Structures
1.
Amino acid sequence: MSLLGRRPIRASHAYLWFDGSWSLLHAVSFTLLLVYQVQTADLTPLQLVLVGTVMEATCFLAEVPTGIVADLYSRRLSMLIGAVVVGVGIGVQGVFPAFVPILIGNVIWAIGYTFLSGAGEAWISDEVEPDGVQPVFTRAEQINLGVGVGGTLLAGALGLLDLRLPMIIAGCSYIALALIMAPLMPETGFTPTPRNERESFRHLRRLMVEGLTAARRRGVVRSFLIIALLTGISSEVFDRLWTAHLLQTFRLPSLAGVNEAALWFTAFALAGRLIALISSLAANRFAAERINARHPAGVMALLILIQLAGVIGFAVSGSLWLALGAMWLRTAAQTVAAPIRSAWLARNVSSTSRATTLSFANQADAIGQVIGGPPLGALATRTSIPVALIVSAILFGPAAVVSARLRPNVDERRRPVTRQQS
């Protein structure tokens, strides 16, 4: 008998409900998380960065052991475990506003996240016919964009009452989501992953060896791995300290007698989402030829320089609105650059090693965050946040040079150019 007397529903519907709910709760949890850590928990810049660094390191280390559940036992079970563990991690942070509990909560959250990482896509791919998977993913993305806005607004409303509420309510809701979805999610297409394809420490070692081998070769792959490492080294300090910088440097304007940080940072988050969307649409509308070029080296270098300008402008600006404009400029450049980078790398890697190379590029970014986060966080504590931000921009600078010098691989240069019939 199913839990609560319920029976499984269609897998596609279950996936949309689970994924949409997850996106809603993610927005509720994280919209005001940094405001809470600065204002309520009173974390220092170093502590703020250490929380993010430990989270990244935990995700990296826990990926293999938690992946064993999805590989051997059940992808559905892995998703449900992930929701419960993530809920506990978020709840711990909201209940105990201090550095050590927040650090522990982030470790728990990261472990929960790795239970879910990849399991949802693998589960629905097993349950739905191959031709029916893409429409489900597309519909899920559309739903996620909508509920993300709703979650941001809900976080703002709760935060006006108490900055702890978004995390406490979201933490309980993640656990409730697992309990509600447990009897509704079917799993009829799962078969244990063959031993040679399982996520294991041997698999991780092979991934590292293959990635390092690719990194030693000349060409696009090595350049992109260098860029990913530099991105990780420089980005962690901005991602963790931008909220603290705004709160410590500027006086938030009063609106009808209200100057609550929860209200303004909710507005900032919504504006960031809107700017990212407009930037992506505008780039594809007015610069499609450039961003879709086979080797857009100049475009990539320019987007990196724009990000550098955004970080420096954010750090040195004496005006709140100029600082926000610089931050949103960085956001726009990141949004446009991400798909260009992924497509360019994919074009220059053989299909047999594409997944491994793309995965290693992501790991290089995570490693960079672990390497760069603590020293820059310590620098921000000993000097100031703007100094650390400027140093992070300088460290990212060589990425523009690497991008500008990118050249096609030998086999790409020899490939004949095909002209479309007009």
2.
Amino acid sequence: MISGQQYIAGHWCGQTEEGIQSFDPAKSRALAYSFAEASAEQLHQVTSAAGMAFEQYRQLPAQQRADFLQRIAAELKACADELIPVVMAETALSRSRVEAELQRSCFQLSFLAAELVKLAPINDAALPERQPVAKAALQLRQVPLGPVLVFAASNFPLAFSVAGGDSAAALAAGCSVIVKAHSAHPATSELVARAIARAAEFCAMPAGVFNLIQARNYQSAEQLLLDPKIKAVAFTGSQQVGLHFARLLQQRAEPVPFYAELGSLNPVFVLPGYLDQQPERLAEMLVHSVSQSQGQLCTKPGLVLLPQGPALQKFLQKLRELVSAQQAGPLLSAKIAAGYSKTAEQFRQMAGVELLAEGVGEELGCDRRLRVFLTDSPVVVSQPSLMEEIFGPATVLVVCQDVTQMQMLATLFAGQLTSSFFAEPDELKQHKALIRQMELKAGRLIANMMPTGVEVSAAMQHGGPFPAATDSRVSAVGGNSLQRFLRPVCYQNMPDLD
């Protein structure tokens, strides 16, 4: 059942109206689901509900919160047969991709459930006999920040949306959550929210611990951002919107943390020895990575730096062959398709930039084809827009004279989620300076693998210096993701309150 309503304080409420329409991007047609735009009064109600729920939820034992996360995973698995077709219809993603994302989402919930029970205070014993000043007993604990506002992502309808990593980490930390559903997949959002609601009821969670708001207009988002009950915000989306939200939060009487992922080029450095040995294999890996999910991944390789040499032509020839056989597919939304078309055309018109190859599929419009552009280092230096992300199935190849020129270009990069290095075993040590340079620019360094794919692990870092993320010290994935929604409190000479 999809009602088109808001989920506030444990209840589906409001009238279903023609406000937000579910849409099938593969067939360019409206689906049978309509959703009401949340009213200003409902937005006020939802922050009040989340604030009241937080006071109860934060005091629950860690194991009880962990059981809640595990139950959400179980409810998502139980509704897979209903959920997966709706996700596919709203996003045009393949069944295998959606099934994998659902599995990842469930694992992520279970992983964070295990991580939160590991959180333990740090104790420093008293030394009353110490001279000349006695030492008091100290205990450092992590306490949750408060209600968290989560903006769902367009490109991950499950893993970075309603029950995705931001919501899961906030709930694990002991925070109540308000999710602003993404208008590109509102029906998916409601079905996932219903699974969370069933889990909350089963686990006897406080009403308002989780809430879902459907809202398309920016005024609704701004009202939520400016509400003083909101104590942290998680966002995945465009740099323009993210920076606007960041400015709003800084204007509040009480600024709060804004954890945003705003885009990344994920530069790939190909060193000479590797290109000499495996030019065709490299072409295969690159095309697979760029075309995966139609290039709509935050870890898509958007810039590939290549050395001059005889093997370069073998690589380019294989790349042309593979790209020319790639069938175009629908993008997540008409807005994304229009943005991709505009940016790709701008690149095509740039002096010194060649369209090396493009895929097929005229019936879908050339704006959705896989594209590979070719240029060289001096052009990139003179055209900084080539170092901006194209969200969609495209990448830019940059030919460099040598590794020294690659390192020079690396100094111009903004912050990145990842940076990959394709090298023979001795080359990584030989060019250690390049790797050290990218340590300052990226959150994850990768050897001989494409960056697409983010493992949910205690050792994962999914973030990076601005504008990859607004806080490079934390991760949006893995065990460190909980730290975004916690703050340290020291208890000095205090009795145990548990």
3.
Amino acid sequence: MHRIAVAWLTWEMTRSALWVGLVAFADLAPAAVISPFAGAIADRVDRLRLATISQAVIGLEAATVAILVATGNMRIEYLLVLELLAGTAASFAQPARQTLMSGIVGPADLPAAVACNSLVFNIARFIGPALAGPVIAAFGVAPAIACNALAYGSAVITMPMLRVDPRHRHGHPATASLMGEIREGFSYIAGHKGLGPLLAYAAIMGVLLRCVQEMLPPLVERHFHRGAESLAMLTACFGVGALVAGLWLAARGRVEGATRLAILAGLWQAAATMGFIATGWFPFGLLCAAAIGAAASLHGISVQQLAQLSAAPEMRGRVLALWGQITRACPALGALILGAAGEAFGLRMPILVMCTLALLVFAWGLRREAGIRAELEGPQQDADNR
């Protein structure tokens, strides 16, 4: 609800695709700088406490935005700074929360748990926009954003109730300086013959394809010539597609074949995005949005399953922090590029160019698939997990 409301608020205040891209960039971009530090810190400290504190900051940010909007004191500069603060806090929350998962369930259940975690997220992506559209249309953006503050407040209250294996709740004692551990994490990932190319593939696809979902308000108004309720319908379709894919992966409950799914999902997402931007017929746009959501979910869950299971325990926080960096910073960079290009050329042509580039990246990933699969799904990896 918050993401939809903030994007719509930005569009109402500025009528600028560039500003919509900048605000999305402000929320997502801190991951580019903060995530390496957040991952190293998550590998050192009480991860449950770190997750609780960072989520409290996000809740306070949402409450501040809602109050400023409700009182008529919001300015685009304030919104930019506040979303930057929330993005910074989220960069700490992501690795802290993700590393707790292996302390809540055993190794045999971890693939299904990762899928269920993403499933819950995608249920929220379906319900949130479905509620946000009518709320924004009837009452404005402030109540929609206030709901986010209440949700994070409940998270802060309930997080301490989690029962987490102490071995996974607390990071390891510091073995080097913080910068040294960050360098160690990057060296580990870059030298890993499976994780390195898989995360590189995910990063490039994030820049080229994921950014489209951050630019929905101008697309809804300029491309489909519709309003806030249609924005909610469109975003809900992204969530429905992701929900169906997440349910299937959760029921699948195994990691075998995840590499192929992660690579092929890039092709499916590029094709669905081309269909989405090529049409001006809204019902077909809804269908394409559901396909984009499904492909993005298949890709994201598969990559996360592989990262969770193949990363060395002492490196897991840093690996998942890099994954968080990819999922937040790469779409932010893409949204900034797309917003700037949209001001000059409109949104259709830049999106089609990005999709064409994504097809080339898919061809590269397909050539590397066998090697990645051997590293992340091979017999030795299974033995290591046991």
4.
Amino acid sequence: MTEQKKVELLAPAGNLEKMKIALNYGADAVYGGTSTFSLRIRSGKEFDMDAYKEGIDYAHARGKKVYTTINSFPFNSQVKLYENHIAKMAELGPDALIVSSPGIVKMAKQIAPNIPIHLSTQANVMNALDAQVYYDMGVTRIIVAREISLKDCEAIKSVLPDLELEVFVHGSMCFAYSGRCLISAIQTGRVPNRGSCANDCRFPYEIYAHNPESGTTFRLDEEEGIGTYIMNAKDMNMASHVDEILASGVIDSLKIEGRTKSPYYAGVVTKAYRAAIDDYYAGKFDPQKYQAELNTTQNRGFSDAYLISRPFERNDTESHDFTIQNGTHQVAALVSEDGKTWRCKDKTCIGDEVEIVLPVGATVELVDNEYGKVEERDGRYWLTFKKLISISGKEFECIHSGDLNDILLPAELPGYTILRRGIAEALEKKGLTEDSTPMKMVPKDRVCD
């Protein structure tokens, strides 16, 4: 009996810092790209060619992979630009190119024949017939449509056992079919499938009835408690089903959405799914543990989407009364890459206690000195601040979010360690309460790979 191949954990890399965080928090591979022809133009602007090359080298030095996104759809006038961009990205040595259209598949194979081609979820592959076409063109992996079922994945794999299948397991969900939406283009001129979606589906909408003969317009009031966020999909969260997905034996990669989301999201979500995968193979799968961590992040409510249940069987995939809500925790600070200092993400004062969230496999030294105290309680680590001193020697009573001073730690911590506190304490520092949430805001993310 051959040993089961372990599934890959693939995390988003919106910029160099988030790429490094995802890799340190357990990702086997990351995906991202520069803004050119990527379906994440905003996040891609944080990656220039030099930074992206540094990220690829960083990943490869740790035995990890980087998949480059070139997954928007070209106009005729852009074909030559696509050719030039593919050639430039290929020179950086990524482990695969993620593309969306048959024409770009063919182009990539001609320009970079030695780099594997992954087909974007935007291509909407749902069955073995379509999968066969792309496989015959040279595609080595298909990121299947969001609406596909696990049974359909099994059917594809039975026909094409050497074709890799990748599925999304966590992150934003688009209300449109496979992310193919035109609302943003119609309302704001920002084309979703060109990477510049304005997230129009996340806004509340009012409904009116108009009589053209009389010119009379009536506003239709929605039933109380139903809400007006009529196109706002809940976030996907498949952590509790990782065991079913892995037991099927047909999925090669589990993908987390979120290149435009925060470093905290990149670290905590990646670590939660790393634990779920590793625990499954170790025979100690515990969904409550993973959900507790995932619930610390901001979200629109969670749904297990369509991989296990068909779309028509679901009635809980929309969040009608808010756009996004606080999670159970708020990030207070992020430790520097060298582990010697931290920068504030949420108001922090002398005497404050924060939880230490470590990268995967990292350890921490317990100390108690003039700068602070690091202790362990119930399997978790905590840091209490006694002094707030910057590397330049400036002392503070409190540090506020956005302050760029690098503050000394009482002891060196693993690079990119996260410091966090409970949401109630975080809101209290802002003069708010948990009754102030859920928050009605529009986040800077949308759904595609």
